[in-house]
Amino acid sequence: MATPDAPTQQLAQAALSSSMKVESRDGDVTGSVYSFLVHKDSGRVTHAVLSLGGFLGVGKSYYPLPFELLQFDPVRDRYVVTVDKRMLEGGPSWASNAPVFDQAYADRVASYYGVRAERLA
Amino acid sequence: MATPDAPTQQLAQAALSSSMKVESRDGDVTGSVYSFLVHKDSGRVTHAVLSLGGFLGVGKSYYPLPFELLQFDPVRDRYVVTVDKRMLEGGPSWASNAPVFDQAYADRVASYYGVRAERLA
């Protein structure tokens, strides 16, 4: 299956039972939240893995986004991301082979989006 | 399917991609973590839903446990729960019909385990 795996001992991947939409500030629906990466020790979601693109589930890619870049809209029950679609699409992602989501990968994601790196250990 | 559903607008249920074992302090393996309930706004895991009992997946029941009662053991990559198996088994649970996990249900879980109630709103 073209799904990302639980990446390290520090993070657990948990797939949303009911998918949640994600859109950019301007209202473009950019995709949905496929899963959360949860720091096992603290119980904090460090990243949301977005599912973007594809057709009928084929050709989708997965984009890990630092959770702090998502804002929950309780009225419409969806997340609004504070980066635009083009930046998202150029960001770290995978299609079928999930990377090892270690400190180096987390640092790369943080660096791309210009946020503080998560300390996973 | 005998799985719990995403319970309210405030909480998202996310099923672990790789199951994690849970045991009690005395080393009895009591089950596994089936899912996390994640507070959508804050990104905090409020509850772990444990899967206990059953045989080959039949007859399992689901037990929501306040996350603060789980301690992560990084050496053995599992959670240790600070309540004993008997208390767990007597706690709020469901088999096939997941409850609406609203404030009243969260309060009931908190009250049973004697922890501070989560404010979901």
Automatic annotation (TrEMBL), chains A, B:
<dbReference type="InterPro" id="IPR011033">
    <property type="entry name" value="PRC_barrel-like_sf"/>
</dbReference>
<feature type="domain" description="PRC-barrel">
    <location>
        <begin position="20"/>
        <end position="86"/>
    </location>
</feature>
<dbReference type="Pfam" id="PF05239">
    <property type="entry name" value="PRC"/>
</dbReference>
<protein>
    <submittedName>
        <fullName>Photosystem reaction center subunit H</fullName>
    </submittedName>
</protein>
<dbReference type="InterPro" id="IPR027275">
    <property type="entry name" value="PRC-brl_dom"/>
</dbReference>
